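assembly run, all chains below
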Amino acid sequence: MKSKNTKGNAIVGQSGGPTAAINATLSGVIQGAIENGDIGEIYGMCNGIAGLLSKRIVNLRERFADSGELRLLENTPAAALGSCRVKLPNADTDENRKVYEQIFDIFTEKDIKYFFYIGGNDSMDTVKKLSSYAKKYKASSPVKIIGVPKTIDNDLSDTDHAPGYGSAAKYIASTVQEVSLDNAVYNQKSVLIVEIMGRDAGWLTAAAALPRLCGNKGRAADLLYLPETEFDSERFIEDIKNQLIKKPNIVVAVSEGIKYSDGTYVCEMKEKHETDIFGHLWLSGTANVLKQLLREKLNCKIRAVELNTPQRCAGHISSLCDITEAVMIGKKAVEAAAEGKSGVMMTFRRVQNQPYKIEIGCEDIANIANAIRKVPDIYITPEKNNVTDECLEYILPLIMGEPDIIYKNGLPEYFKL
Amino acid sequence: MKSKNTKGNAIVGQSGGPTAAINATLSGVIQGAIENGDIGEIYGMCNGIAGLLSKRIVNLRERFADSGELRLLENTPAAALGSCRVKLPNADTDENRKVYEQIFDIFTEKDIKYFFYIGGNDSMDTVKKLSSYAKKYKASSPVKIIGVPKTIDNDLSDTDHAPGYGSAAKYIASTVQEVSLDNAVYNQKSVLIVEIMGRDAGWLTAAAALPRLCGNKGRAADLLYLPETEFDSERFIEDIKNQLIKKPNIVVAVSEGIKYSDGTYVCEMKEKHETDIFGHLWLSGTANVLKQLLREKLNCKIRAVELNTPQRCAGHISSLCDITEAVMIGKKAVEAAAEGKSGVMMTFRRVQNQPYKIEIGCEDIANIANAIRKVPDIYITPEKNNVTDECLEYILPLIMGEPDIIYKNGLPEYFKL
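ok done. output:
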């Protein structure tokens, strides 16, 4: 039997924006590494690659000796190890290569054989660069480099979806149901504009239409504007006027990233007729800008709600499907590394939708990093102001089920590192 | 046995801003009326007194023949009957008395003997005016007029607390825990400003400190600013600088209603040094104004989150204590009316705090309407930037317990009228 020291060690980090499921994936990696008899220590980088470079490293095998703690970690939002937004330089100069050498020196020093990086597009860029560097300059390095997807935006390519999206979508759909009820209590016409995250892809905004497919048509967003289609103020106003004829209280979901045809964001308020009225750019979110626009054109109650950061960290209403899959993909990442895979990102493939079934595999990181998977045309209605049922059928399985959240003193109990 | 027609009928309405518990009280009134053998029909006014005047009335006994529907109603946020914001005129002129005559004519026509009005301060003004009118001009009217409290603001006088507050407080405390985790993921100093409802009273903002009492000190708001104390920009900036020395990532809870010493709201941005920098009043919430103020003074990440309407309608994370009490007080309102009480608002009295125990009674509406119950000085720290443990001990029982929310297709199932 090999002594613990001769086994290779694993290290795992979290990177990019927090989600409700990134800790579930961390838990999956830890579980996978514990189950794998050939892995020695399991290290965690604090604040991702930034923490690795400053050797801020914690011993996760020791920290999670109690498996109840892993269970708590799974349902805890945000990034327990801390996150970072670091972009590695291109390894094309001696100067730039120093940081890579530093990383591989730490790998050697800590006897790292498995490197897991949980994150979105920017984080997969780190995985790609590290993998390329290893291939080119560190052919003898034993380190397997694996990316594990995470993003509420759901815009990672080559995977059916990404962990974190389902929980955010569930929060958004539930909240839209609730604010829609709230918006309809008075006997007067009203428009509620809900601003949802997603700078480049409208997957999150699309979730605001989910109540439609769940038998609550009247409580879904009535109109949706995604960053995938050009935003046109005049058409927007017409859409709303037409909708108000059908229904007195309407909910409009807008992505924070919607843009005019000239490429400027709506929240930049660059259109001529708005510049005179609005003040300073930095005060306004997209929903507030549109609220002002409508105030000039409609004689009814108009309110703007920005869902903001709660949509990405609402652990108390996370999706069981999302959390379960997030754990699974973390475990599978360890299996893939143990099988010798490297320079890949773990992926989901949807085998069938009813009943929903997925398979977990992996794809070459080179194809994935920095590609943005947008909502396809086929998922957007011809009028460009809603999503199709097909789109909602794609999203629905991802929000199913509720984890058993532990409440203590009236509040959800979350993990503390 | 009396025929159904000879029994007096009851009518119930909802008024003012929606909450997560106002439908639970409606359910309680319906249950109480069903259980009372002497009540004939149970009517609901659509959109409160406004709907009564236009005779938009529904038959609730028929609608809720299935008790499963009552159960669903209890956990459904917003106002199922619809709400209104109507202020009755003073009955001091013939012209003004017309609307009262109209209301009492409808009472006679519909054989109403019990009038229940669920709402906050403005709605209790309606109850007070109707009661006074009845006393003065309708001495022979058999109608018992009962106010039932409801307000997320918790600012109704003569009652320990009001239904709706506990659920909003639970949502706020849970969300603050989650955004606090989210705010702490990067290895850099940051300030998150969370804007909370409450124009005149800081009870909701105080709930942002609850995680402190629940064993999660690090995830409570670190600084709180209530409308009960004058806001001072300079002291605010100093508070934050001092707090950032103790802790790299801080959460600041501010009430939307905080004001400068001259009485102007912070969101009005009237202070001289701000007028030059800020644009138009209507774009900015309090948190955004303070974000800009801090940006000028601090060199760190600053983010503003406005909890907005979700805080008053988040049925999915309502408080079991709140919902249970909301039902109870509705039932007790029927008992009080049946005992001959009129011109009163139902109230809670806290008999003891550990274990928490309340009694339900009623108080003369004349003392209650239009009085605002603020957070007392003793609940605010001497530095005026936090609340005391005593304050949190008062709030804590009100957020305890989680109702068994039914999920269907991944979303909370709510009642449909």
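Confidence is low (pLDDT under 50) at residues 270-283 of chain A.

The longest strand of chain A covers residues 344-353.

not gonna interpret more than that til we talk
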